[in-house]
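Reagents: none. Just compute today. Tektin.
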Amino acid sequence: MAKEVSMCTQLQQWSPVKPTGSTPSVPPQVGYCFHTPKKHPWRPIMGYEEIEVTPMPSQPITNTMVDPCYTSEGMAAEPLRFPNLVTGFDRSPEHAARAALYTRYTQHEWNQNSIRNYNESDAKRNFSERVRNDIMRMLRETDEIGAQGQRDSGRKIGERITDTTFWRNEVAIEMERLVATCERLTDTRRQLERAVAGIEGPLHIVQECLYHREKRQGLEQVHDTVEQSLLKEVAILRECQDKFRNMLEKVRQQAKNCRATQHELESDMRNKEYALGIDNMCHQLNNFSKGLQFYAGIERYDPTVCDAQRWAAASAATLQRSQSERAKAVQMLSDTDNLINVSATEIWDQWSNTNSAFTRRIAETIEIKNKLQLHLHKVQNEIFDIEKTLELLNKAIEDKLQPMKVAHSRLQARTNRPHLEKCRDYAQTRLVKEVCDLQETMEQLRSKIATAEGTHQTLLGVRASLEADLRNKAATLFIDRDQCMGLRRGYPVTAAIKA
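Predicted 3D structure written out:
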């Protein structure tokens, strides 16, 4: 069974043959359809398939097989007819005899025919030699053109490799610088996040100080320099926190732009690396390389998207965008460092001013508290003295009661004198004067007692006021010195911002 491999440009069904007798219309397939391994854009898909072909019958064709009845089974074409003198003699004997015995040409014609053949042979041979020389010259020229073209193409590919390598190196250097800048941006972003979070501590402390100072009582709730400094410190902390947040948003946006530019550089570098690999492989190809093959129509296929000038301009534009974004990032890093340093200095100065105001206020409170204690001690002594004086006054009044009783008793006894003995003598006058003097003295003493008691009550009120003021001063001193300054001394504000 013979097999034949048939190649076709496109896979189509075989053209049917009109059946003759029991002949099949389509040759049976004995294999599968095979395609080319790779599709090319300049030509269609190639393929082939294996079929089984039925051979023609091996019976010779003769004049006896001129009728269709002698056609072999399976033969799909008409039999050939050959001329024959014998059979022709049977049909036309006169024509056959004349054709066999009649001479067509003379000797001269025969000689002329030979000479003409010689001349034609020489002319054709000379023409063939000229053609062959032209062909050899053309072969040498085509070889030179092919070699020169291959050399020029190799040189151009080498120049392209040099240009691509230069731009690849520039992109690699710029990408390293951009990556370092992105890392610095990341560090700055973390520093700003820590600064924003670090301000919460001092702000909470300042607010706690304000809340504690709200617990002051009486006239101690004064809008003093400490409260003014605390309110100013709250405003500065919130302002700095807002600045840090705004700068943080700018840094995040700039980091996104830098990452986008870095992605663009990485894509450009990958493309250039891939192109360098292809160009290096093409530059190393020669006539003796393996894997060479034909690609029909490849010279008419143009997959390029730009020319060399646009390619170089695109590479330069990519580098320029990266340098611009990197310059913006460096400027933002400088602004961020400046903002952090200025804000930390401002916060620290206000923190120190508030602590100084607290110190001065605590010193003033301690001084006033000491003076109040001194006055309270004096008032307490005066109360003690007035109480002693009151006791002496009461004792003096009590002491005057007995002489008053004696004088009254004497006057009462003298009222019992008879008749003219009841004269107003000096003794009677003196007793009356004594009683009057004692009464006047007791009235004066009672008046002094009332005055002393009023003074005593006043002193008690002053003492209560001083004691209440002392309690308020002590409470204020505890709030400012122990609570507020205790919180403020134990918190490193600059470490919270510059961490």
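Confidence is low (pLDDT under 50) at residues 1-34, 59-71.
Action item: order primers for follow-up constructs.
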